[in-house]
Amino acid sequence: MLAWSAFYPYLLPWVPTCANPVMDQELRRAANEFFTRTRAWCVWLDPVTTVDGVREYNFNLPANTNLVRIEVANVGAV
Questions:
Q1: How far is the C-alpha of 68 from the C-alpha of 43, rounded, in Å?
Q2: What is the block-wise mean pLDDT of the chain (78 residues), using blocks of 10 residues?
């Protein structure tokens, strides 16, 4: 994975006086929006055994990720 600084040469012509922390913040925001809108990145999670009457479950997510939506769920799968 590239560091945010790898993208600075593409940004600096448009915002030459922008501070590096601000560029990092905006690159992170843009990446988050891109992957949320396009669904270009997804992760298959480990199976969860459900229990009758339990309505909430914890998912073990990869580090530094957010659960945006559950695309597929199977019932009765082995």
A1: 11
A2: 91 94 95 87 83 88 83 74
